[in-house]
Amino acid sequence: MSIAYIGIGSNLGNRKNNCLRAIELIKKNGIIIRKLSSMYKTEPWGIKDQPYFLNMAIEIETELNPIELLKILKNIENKIGRKESFKWGPRIIDLDILLFNNLIFKEDSLEIPHPLMHKRNFVLLPLCEIAPDRIHPLLKKKISDLIKEL
Questions:
Q1: Is-contact 76 34, C-beta < 8 A?
Q2: Using CA atoms, how far apart are residues 8 and 66, in angstroms rounded to an integer?
Q3: Spatial separation of the C-alpha atoms in residues 28 and 14, rounded to whole Å
Q4: Radius of gyration of the chain measured on its C-alpha atoms
Q5: What amino acid positions are annotated as catalytic residues?
Q6: C-alpha to C-alpha distance for 144 and 43, rounded to whole angstroms
Q7: What's the pLDDT tens digit per position in 87-136?
Q8: Is the pTM value of this prediction over 0.90?
Q9: Which of 3, 68, 128, 142 is in Cβ range 3.0-4.6 Å of 64 for a Cys bridge?
Q10: Domain boundaries defined on the chain
Q11: Residue 81: which of 5, 15, 36 has the closest Cα?
Q12: Do the strands 32-36 and 111-112 form a parallel or antiparallel pair, or are they unpaired?
């Protein structure tokens, strides 16, 4: 079994329900949710002129490989109603693989660890709540230390 961390965010519609629905759909795909962070109201990143987000993180246990997990997460986003828009634009739901074991992985469709996570307070804050001592596999620093550097 692998341990992975998923970032969850929403800034359209009922943000809280969108995040909770995503969690329920993740569970229905045979993925075990081990830990849930609190939900944090966060300022948009990249493009500021849009509604605030609700962000959280979950720790999961899965037998899936990263590409299989990504496919399930993309299907869940579609089921909840996510439509493709511009980069960093508003979205009903966003599910990102942040970490997967201690894997360093890069393909066109997926990069692990998430390439911008260490620069984003809205990712590190909920992740630090559930995994403060987890080590970023590239930067070799604890999540709790990365958040201090922001």
A1: no
A2: 16
A3: 21
A4: 14
A5: 82, 91, 94, 96
A6: 20
A7: 666 889 999 999 999 999 999 889 999 999 999 999 999 999 999 999 99
A8: yes
A9: 68
A10: 2-149
A11: 15
A12: unpaired
